[in-house]
């Protein structure tokens, strides 16, 4: 049973460019959350998708956007990249029961470097 | 005040000793508490969750929760060099049991000396 799959594993982009990161949730999970982890920091919540809609959002600018597909997979898009966007981007999948999430599982992450 | 606070360390303990990791949180309505282990360059791995006041034991790990003091701790008995990692404390940011997002501390780096 595959866990949470993220792609690509590493990415190097130039300032001002746009990037798309992808996440396939664990089998049986219907909810995807995205986190940004800068070096030496804990993960910071970006947003969560459920039923193809953004359900909750953290304190991130509109340059960060996402999408969830009917098969529950998700994309994270970042526009106008800044050097400060360099981080490990983590996807976590879970299943929702009412407003609660269960089985929170992290993927291995995408390391984004902006130069 | 940060929502979840941890001592960044490093916390250095000899092999076989007990490692004690601490975490405080600011939101009194938090319901769920988690400890994650993260090896360098890897993703966080859940090692313990706790929801009620008191102790919860799982193998060499014991999580302790005191909601009145807004304090969570993790004890690692018989520490091994393979336990050397960053330990992240995370708190459920939702209300009434909702776990829509996790709020993490900055992590404590644990180094177990052989």
Write up what this structure looks like.
The complex is a heterodimer of chains A (115) and B (114). With 115 residues, chain A is mainly beta. Chain A is built from no helices and eleven strands. In chain A, the strands form two sheets. In chain A, strands 2, 4, 5, 6, 9, 10 and 11 form a seven-stranded mixed β-sheet that branches. In chain A, strands 1-3-8-7 form a four-stranded antiparallel β-sheet, with no helix packed on it. The termini of chain A are far apart. In chain B, the strands form two sheets. In chain B, strands 2, 4, 5, 9, 10 and 11 form a six-stranded mixed β-sheet that branches. A five-stranded antiparallel β-sheet of chain B has the order 1-3-8-7-6, with no helix packed on it. The radius of gyration of chain B is 14 Å and the shape is globular. The mean pLDDT of chain B is 91. Chain B is mainly β. Chain B contains no helices and eleven strands. Classes of the chains: A mainly beta (115), B mainly beta (114). The A-B interface holds A 33, 35, 40-45, 48, 55-56, 58, 88, 90, 94, 99-102, 104-109, 111 and B 4, 8, 41-46, 88, 90, 93-94, 96-107.
């Amino acid at each position: 049973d595959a866990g949470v799959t993220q792609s690509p594993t590493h990415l190097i982009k130039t300032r001002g460019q746009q990037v798309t990161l992808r996440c396939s949730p664990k089998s049986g999970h219907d909810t995807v959350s995205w986190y940004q982890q800068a070096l030496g920091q804990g993960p910071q919540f970006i947003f969560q998708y459920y039923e193809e809609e953004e359900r909750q959002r953290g304190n991130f600018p509109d340059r960060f956007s996402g999408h969830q597909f009917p098969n529950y997979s998700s994309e994270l898009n970042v526009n106008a990249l800044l050097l400060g966007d360099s981080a490990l981007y983590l996807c976590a999948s879970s299943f929702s029961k009412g407003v609660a999430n269960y089985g929170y599982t992290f993927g291995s992450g995408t390391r984004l470097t902006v130069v | 005040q940060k929502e979840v606070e941890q001592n960044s360390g490093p916390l250095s303990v000899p092999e076989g000793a007990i490692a004690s990791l601490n975490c405080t949180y600011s939101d009194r309505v938090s319901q769920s508490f988690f400890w994650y282990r993260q090896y360098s360059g890897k993703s966080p791995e859940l090692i313990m969750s706790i929801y009620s006041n008191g102790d919860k034991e799982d193998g060499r790990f014991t999580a302790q929760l005191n909601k009145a003091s807004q304090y969570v701790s993790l004890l690692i008995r018989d520490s091994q060099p393979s336990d050397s990692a960053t330990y992240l404390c995370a708190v459920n940011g939702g209300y009434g049991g909702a776990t829509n997002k996790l709020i993490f501390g900055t992590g404590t780096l644990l180094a177990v000396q052989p």
